[in-house]
Amino acid sequence: MTQIGWAPLLPVWMLLVLGALGLLITLIGFFTHLRGTGLRLLALLVGLLWLADPQLRHPILQSRPQDVLLLVDRTPSMNIANRTALADQAVKSLQRQVGSLQGMSLHVVDVPGGHGQGTRLYEAMAREIPGLPDLAAVIMVTDGVDQFPLTHLPAALTNPPGGAPVPLHLLVTARGEETDRTLPLLSAPPYTLAGKDAHIRFQTEDIGAYEGAPVLVTTRQDSGAAQKLGEVRSGQPMDLTVHLTHPGQTLVELSASPLPGEASLLNNHTLVRLQGVRDRLRVLLISGVPNQSARVWRQLLKADPSVDLVHFTILRSPEMEDDTPLSDLALIPFPTHELFEQKIRSFDLIILDGFQNHNILPDSYLHNIAEFVRKGGGLLVVAGPEQTQPGALQDSPLDSVLPAHVTPDSVQTGIFHPRPSRLGQRHPVTLDLPPANSWGPWFRLLRPDRTHGETLLETDHGQPLLILDQVGQGRVAMMLSDQIWLWSRSARNSGPQAELLRRLAHWLMKEPELEENRLKAYFKGSTLEVTRFSTSPLPPGQAEVTAPDGHTTSLSLTPVGGKEGILTGRMAVKDLMPDRIWTVRQGDLVTCTAANRENPIEDKDLQATATLMGPVSRVLGGATVWLGRNGPPALRQVNGTGSLFGPGWIGVPRHQVAVAGATRSRALFPGWLALPLLLILWGLAWRREG
C-alpha cells in the first residue's frame, strides 16, 4: 500500500524555530504595511516544505508462485472430428509457454468420461481447487458441454484470498458454434401383450439451429428392411404403431435424416426395445387325490403373477358308495362339461397330477384334451401307481399324445437318484441346473415298456423319469414318478425342484427362452457374442453377421467344451454403431441384437458450443477462444486490474506480495523544483518592495 512520509533535511526543532522566526517577521511586515510581505510568506512556506522533504513511499513487491489449473475434456464426445487433436495442440502450447514464465506452475488434469457418467468438468474443478492455494487462473479445454452445470460459482473463484476473482478461460475445440440433430424418445410402453399394438411417440430436435426444418424419418424392425415414415418438421412429435407378433423382445430402429453441417450423426438414431408378453397364462391343475405334490404345484404356480391357476382335487369318485345323503356333502361338483367341453381352449396348460379317471371323464372329454394338445396346448402328466390300474389315462383316447406307456407291473420301489440324461445336459429345461450329485433320492418310479420323444431325466441306472414330446402344434411332458415333492421336505435331500418345474411349465407354454433350437446374440462391451443352442450335437459352423450399414461378416462358431449342442463365437467390433440393429443368421435361425449406448447422457448433445459455459467464463473475466479458428492462444502474466485477454492472448493475474520492512521512496517536492520557485518568489517580493 502506497504511503506519504517525511525525511526532513534539518532537525525538527530547527524547522520549528525557522518557522517561528519567519512567522514573526511576516507579522511585523503586515503591521508595518511592508510591501511584498505575502510573497515572502509564500517563499517561507516553500522553503520549509522543501526542508521537510515529503516523500511518497511504495512497498517493494516480490512475485509469489502462481498455480494455473488446466482441465482437459477427455470424454467420448471429444473423439468427434478433430477435437482431440485441437485439445492436444493447445495443451502442448500452454505447457511450452509456462516454462518461460517465472513462478508459474501448470497443473494439467485430464477429465475422463464414458460409462454413462457424462462430462463433469465443473466437478473436477471443484475437486482440484482446494489443493491449489496459489490459484491464479483456470483454463478449460473442452467442446463446451457439461451435463452437470454449476448451481453457483465456487467461493475460491469469486472471492479468493488474494481479492481479485480468478479468471476462467474457455478454449473450445471447434471453429465456431455447431449444430446437432437428435431423435429423443418421448414415450414407449415397457410391456405389450403379444398380438397387440405398441404405440411409440418421438420427435426430432435440432440443437443450435432453428426448429421446423424438414426431417425424413425411417424405421426398421428386427431384421426387416428400412421403411420411410414420411417427412416431418423438427420439434414436432410423431407417433408410430408397431404390431408385436410374438412374446419376447422386438427391436425397432428409428433414424432421422442428417442436418446439414451437424457435428455428428451418432445420435440421429434411436432404438426402442419393445417387450412382448403373453396375456395372463391360464393353467388347469387337476389332482386325482390329495397328495404332497399338489401343494408343490400350487405354491409354484400361485407365486407366478403372470399365471391364473384353476385347481381341482378329486375327493370323491362317482363309484364311491356310502350312506351319506348327497345334500349333506360339502363338496363342489366337478364341472367336467364346462372345463373340457366349453372352456378347454381358454387354458394354456393342463396338469394331471396323480389323476385316476374312475369314470370321472368320458372318452369324449379325454379326446378333447388330446385335441387341445394337437392344436397348440400344453399337457403335463405326473404319473404314479394309478397309471398301472384299470381305466388309466394310457387306456383312453389320451394315449395317442402320451410319450410313454407302462405295464401293470411296472411300479418299482427303492432308492434311486434322478440325473439329467445325455440329452438333458444340453436341453434348456435341464441345462445348467445344480450338480446332480447334490440331488436327493426318490423311492418310486414307473418303468415304461415303450417311449417316444426326448428323455431329459433318468435314474442312475438309466431308467427314464421325465419325457418331453411335441404333438402337432402342442407339447406334452410326462413324469414317471410322483415323488418330486420329496425335494421340498428337507434341506439334506433337496434338489432343483422349483427351477425344474418352472422351466418345465414354461417350456410347455412355449416360452421363447426355452426353445431347444435357438440362436442368441448380444454385445458385451465392444464384442459381439453369438451362441447356437441345439438338442443334438453340432459340428463347427459359420454364422453371418450383418452390420447396420449392410456389411456382412462370417463368424466361426465352435463347440463349448463339455457341452454338446452348444456353439459359440465372438467377434470384436470396432464401430459399434449403438442403437442400430445387427442381424445374425445361422442356417434357418435368425436373431437380432443391438449395442447399447455407453454414454446416453453425453450423446444427447454432441455439438461444440460456448453458449453453455461461456457465461460462466464472462462472469469471472475470462476469455472464450475457438481453437479451430484461432489456434492456441498466447499466455501472458498481467499486472494490475486490467483486461485479462485480448486478440490472440489470455492473461493470468500476477501474484505479488510486499517485502516486510522494505519500501521505495520518491520525493514529492524535490530541490530542482523548490529552488527555482524560491528564487521566483524572492525576486517578486524584492521587486514589489522596490
Summarize this, please?
The protein is of the alpha/beta class and 690 residues long. 20% of the residues lie in helices and 37% in strands.
What would you note in describing this structure?
The protein has twelve helices and 38 strands. It starts with a strand and ends with a helix. The chain is an alpha/beta fold and 690 residues long. The model has no long low-confidence stretch (mean pLDDT 85). Helix 1 packs antiparallel against helix 2, helix 2 (37-52) runs antiparallel to helix 12 and helix 7 (336-342) packs parallel to helix 8 (363-374). It has five domains: 3-62 and 659-689, no CATH class; 65-178 and 608-654, Rossmann fold; 190-273, Sandwich (Immunoglobulin-like); 281-318 and 331-508, Class I glutamine amidotransferase (GATase) domain (Rossmann fold, 3-Layer(aba) Sandwich), CATH 3.40.50.880; 516-594, Immunoglobulin-like (Sandwich). The longest helix is centred in the first third of the chain and has 20 residues, at 12-31. The strands form nine sheets. Strands 18-17-19-20-26-25-24-22 form an eight-stranded mixed beta sheet.
